[in-house]
## 1
Amino acid sequence: MEKKINKLVEEALQELGKASKLNDLMVLKAKYLGKKSQFNDFMRELKDLPNNEKPKVGKLVNIGKNKINHKIEEMKEKIEADKINQKLKEETIDVTLPGKKIAQGKKHIFTQTIEEIEDIFVGLGYEIKEGPEIEEDKYNFEMLNLPKDHPARDMQDSLYISEEILLRTHTSPVQVRSLLENADKKPVKIISPGRVYRKDDDDQTHSHQFGQVEALVVDKKTSLSDLKGTLLLAAQKLFGEERQIRLRPSYFPFTEPSVEVDVSCYKCNGTGCSMCKNTGWIEILGAGMVNNNVLKACGYDPNEFQGFAIGFGVERIAMLRHGIDDIRLLYTNDLRFNSQF
């Protein structure tokens, strides 16, 4: 019996020493220590041995099982260590190779356009002012010469939350708030960038929400020539130093006189092309002298103060400058589109 046990232990240790995978190790463990192993057979044969041999054989069986268990644990540690070393070897970093370039994000073309407009006007001494997007009817319409029964309200069909609260349809309420806050009646020179909302169909050139940057100047000697000079400078900064502008009479309830502003076509240089519809001019924004009724509503004497206002559509400027033919592309968050600018 002793020779059989020693032979079995030697055989097990040799076979375990050749194992190279954890799965092989588990198979051998079942073979030598499982319920159907020879060690279990030895334990069953103990009852047939003389009483004086039982302790000796039982001790040999336990020693043999312990040796096999110890070898299994030793080989398990070795196999796991070999696996880790192999993985480290395969994943070794060559420090002499150039590093992987990390893609750098950039500002969206919408944000870029707003900031460019802001830079132009900040350079002229304007202050940036912001206001709430959920606005009172009083500030959004009534104080801008648009009482509740005014037909011009149809030009800005609106998204109301209640009878007196709506999503602002332009950033002009910021101008009203700024004039009201100016109790000392000091000169006002501000721009108000932000998002505005109108009940409009979404198509290639329209969206229910879009960006505006409005400029406002109110002082004692502000004139239409100041407005024209400001518009010319802004157009040249945005579309090229060689550009010219054209002012056409228009109508806005909060300005009088009002003008539509065209810039000479930067694609054909005014000779006529598909971009300018063969006119040589491209409409870019609306402007005008602040209506006397607006000045009065904000506590300014029209005989003493006058001013002008300018309204940029951010998406329109971006689309014209970069040849974008669908306003919806600005909102889809498609990296193939965004990464071009």
Note: Residues 54-90 form the longest helix (37 residues).
## 2
Amino acid sequence: MVIFIKPELILTPGEILENKGIYVEVDTGRIIDVKEYVGKSDINIFLGPNTVVIPGIINAHDHLLGSYWPRVGEGPHISWKPWDDMLKSSEVYKERSKIPNFYLYVLGAYKNLISGVTTVSDHIPHKVNQEFIDKLPVRVISEYTLAHEVSSYDLKWGDGVEIEHKRAVQNNWPFITHIEEGFDEESMKGIDYLESYGALTDHTVMIHGLALSDEDLDKISKAGAHLVTCPISNYFMFKRIARLKEWFERNINVSLGTDSPMSGGMNILEEAKYLKMAYKVKYFQDLDNRTIVYMVTKNPAKAFRIQNKVGRIEKGLFADLVVFRLKGNDPFGSVVYSWFNDIEMVFIRGIPYYGFSYYKEVFDKFSGIVDYSKAIIDGKERIIVGDLEGYVKTIWNFVGFKKHLPFLPIFIKD
């Protein structure tokens, strides 16, 4: 089956395309072509004026197991460890622990989906998430190796930095680790440790990097390694954000993530706006909206070595697409300044997974492929893959009351 999706504008994201649409082969989930309408499609989706389509957003750092609320353990801290200790001794953590892991993953997946995220990097050992990720309504990266952090007091994920990095190189996967998430002497040796293991290469994806020195950044740039920033979590835990201007000046590939909602932003949309604001406060300069859109599309696709699958709107790639309402003269700004009700539809592999109920006729054409339900999100009726309302009610049963989660603003009638 071939579908044709026609918005007012397409951000590839490298180009702004007008008067063109996207042809998708649903059986493969891949884009056939991006061009003007020439017929030859089974389903036509004309989105109308004031719509802009971008590649499905990639959340470059989440801890889906931590999908809960509220935040716990506000800093400033010297490292991540005091925050972790506060989290695990809190009443909120005890409450969260009543929910089985699968349902926490469901919460995290839907949190991402309704904010336009189609691919998530879940930084956790494979043995934790491998039984869940194929059952979730978003794509979770499965081919990676990892360490929790490069320090003596990390959580000992994986088989050690050296082995995990070598495995990543052999399989052409990313090696993912937290780096210099803090300012104690141990944290600030992170790059030195990576070098000693021979693990600072273009396969290396590092999260946070708050204490990275100019010398560290020069080494990262030379190695072609990648950095991910989570500004809301960083400010909550440490009262500062990373030295992003210095990262950009060295042409380091930088991506944006949310971290867990128990320390970070409620979703990637909040992170984008916060990043814009925090950068202005720190450097008295505007961070270009195009740069931020790159940080959630093509940049993380490159970092996680999946640029032949996602991150751009291009022939041969998966048709992961997000439709935003176009506001003003800057289509990139329409993405950066968006919120829940600015997202019209989300497609994964060419299939609509989420959207306003006035697209019901479109969803009906896929009802034999995907199961849908209705949900009121942020006051507006949506159609969404799976049974979100049922999952939320189940979670209420686990915790014993109607838990409000602002990253999942669903209204359920009594």
Note: Residues 175 and 204 are 5 Å apart (CA to CA).
